[in-house]
Design a protein that fits this description.
Chain A contains nine helices and no strands. By secondary structure, chain A is an all-alpha fold. The first copy, chain A, binds a DNA duplex through loops.
Chain lengths: 192, 192
DNA sequence: CCTACCGATCGGTAGG
DNA sequence: CCTACCGATCGGTAGG
């Protein structure tokens, strides 16, 4: 890992722990045992660092969603999206958390770009639910409402999920998939 | 509204828009057309302001949850909790957003106090779901997982809900209640 | 990668 | 409620 990557990784950890504005460039430097000013031979500005972290996370979420075969049955498609979302969240925890929480501190252009990518990502969920509704597999009054609901549940997971905690990623995925499909009216074998 | 309340309200708005650390005391003062130093005859410190905002929101959420009659049927209890949660979120949007997002910038004692109150709040959901599971009204594999799922979906709503937007609070409540009950395996009249 | 330093701004206090 | 001010820290640059 080169210095630039180390800086981005360290910044991601700190932005997640303390937030973008509460983290100073000197905090990042201290973790790497160098002086704050030395960062600037590798990076351009604090905002550029935030941008790269957020954009990298967006890449990961989008790549995953785009890899889902749209010819699959809607339940399978949604299941794949949920699994992928949770996998990316857990694998990139700091970056994902920063993506969800700190993107709004980007200004102008960068902010708009990231909003577009978020919308593109959410569209994968909306389209899948819409397809399931059309195929009468999902029973849902408002597609937008349902996809907001499910995405909300998924989005919040970075807040509490602890890879070392009592749930594995597999267990989380299995239960969240079941809860989501059920919320859309899909009948599953009951597990009391 | 006295000056102290005005300061808290203004601070809540700004903390929501820009975050606690990105908001300076002078920003708050500017909105009230006074100098930053003048704030200090009404408040003790910036952290105390954050604490009061967060704690006020916690009061509102807890009061609502505690007012739900525990002798109701589990579906009705959960419905009341969901309605109450969304009502408080929408009515106190800035404070609720700060409660969800900025509480972690509290230090020591205050931080621990708020964590306890959050846990107490979540317990209302867990207990209701557990009661429903025992009564075989809810079909749920892991109570903790299911309550995290539903609370996550609810918690995220402050991120996107716009009182002036295309959904009313009533519509939001109705749909989220339906989605939540269904996710727990409750059968509802289907709405395609 | 460092030292040295810039102007700006931070939360907060003194004193009126 | 104000002016005046404190020490600390901010993101970032110059120059080596």
């Amino acid at each position: 890992m080169d210095r630039r990557q180390e800086i981005l990784t360290t910044a991601g950890d700190l932005f997640r722990e303390n937030g973008y504005h509460a983290t100073s460039m000197r905090d990042i430097a201290k973790r790497l045992d160098i002086r704050g000013s030395s960062l600037y031979s590798h990076i351009e500005s604090k905002e550029q660092v935030l941008w790269e972290i957020v954009n990298e996370a967006a890449d990961a979420f989008l790549a995953q969603a785009e890899s889902v075969d749209t010819s699959l049955a809607p339940e399978k498609r949604l299941e794949a999206l949920i699994r992928g979302h949770l996998e990316v969240t857990v694998k990139e925890l700091p970056n994902a958390a920063v993506f969800f929480h700190e993107w709004k501190f980007l200004s102008g252009d960068l902010r708009e770009k990231i909003i577009l990518r978020r919308d593109a990502y959410e569209a994968h969920f909306r389209k899948t639910i819409k397809a399931g509704k059309k195929a009468s597999v999902f029973k849902v009054a408002k597609v937008k409402m349902a996809s907001l609901y499910i995405l909300s549940a998924l989005n919040w997971s970075y807040q509490w999920f602890d890879p070392a905690g009592s749930f594995s990623l597999d267990a989380l995925t299995k239960h969240y998939t079941e809860l989501s499909l059920r919320s859309l009216g899909v009948k599953l074998k009951s597990k009391t």
